[in-house]
From TrEMBL:
Domain Amidohydrolase, residue spans: 76-138
Pfam families cross-referenced by the UniProt entry: Amidohydro_3
Database matches in SUPFAM superfamilies: Composite domain of metallo-dependent hydrolases, Metallo-dependent hydrolases
Species whose genome carries this gene: marine metagenome
Name the record gives this protein: Amidohydrolase 3 domain-containing protein
Amino acid sequence: VNRRAFLACTTGLASLATPRWAREVVWAQAPASADIILRGATVYDGSGGSPFAAEVALQGGRIAAVGPGLATTGAEVIDLRGLVLAPGFIDIHSHTDLVLLANPRAESKVRQGVTTEVVGQDGSSTGTWTDREFESTKDFYRSRYDVKIDFRGLTGFFDRLSRTPGSVNLASMIGAGSVRSLVVGDDNRGATSEELKRMVSLIHEGLAAGACGVSSGLEYVPGGFANPEELVALTEPLRARRLPYASHIRNEDDRLIAAIEEALNVGRLAGVPVQVSHMKAQGQRNWWKARVVLEILEAARADRIDVMYDRYPYVAYSTGLSNLFPLWVRDGGIDTFLERLLDSRLEA
């Protein structure tokens, strides 16, 4: 998993993951006072180097110094003997999004050591809503969690988070699927030139608001209706900012190899880093493709394409039930999809 590009887009992250030269500078600047001293732990600093014994001084919610025998006054000392101290983990593919407003403590994440989550995944980003999506989201969160949704766009989302902060840092991509839904709708057709210009403009707006990349969900509606040319156009704005394109690829089983190659080609043509979500070969008949795909990814790296992938640590598949139906059945949105399900002429 390539965290470097995602680290650049997170804010307020207190991390020990510094190169050794920077760590030595911090050691030489121990503060006269600190709020908290973490003492006695074995430190893994995230650099890949060997663990080391050190104390960590915290001041104002930030790491003030790392080193042995920090002499400070008035600090609360927390004894971590026998424990490991490490930077918070970054969940680079999260669907927390609005849930953080309903459950700001986020204990299910912080108790695992996760301190930063990257949301706006699989082509869907909070606030990039159609009017219908906005109304349904408002109704759901009001009735289920007594949470008022009173914003639109990523700017509104980030502003709301700043007013109701949670226990974890949150960074968000802007979803290419959300942008397509807002401009084109849920129909299976190519975007017109004017629609594409509007979509690219929305991508620029999202990036200016603070989005840390563009995501696509090519197994979902309407993201799956985008052709490669559209994806390149929507990801080209990332190049100047050196931000990544994260793609829930178009297929994870019988057409896995073609889906991987499509993601790589988008990154190559747009000139941006690629994050493949997720790396798996679904179905026993496709297991042999795992090694082939790894070879393709290594060859792409050798060809100077900045590509990484994520892999979740369980043998399962988590998605909506509608995703079990082919794209043509879902063409036109949820109402049309439900009508097709009731059409006896389409029964298997």
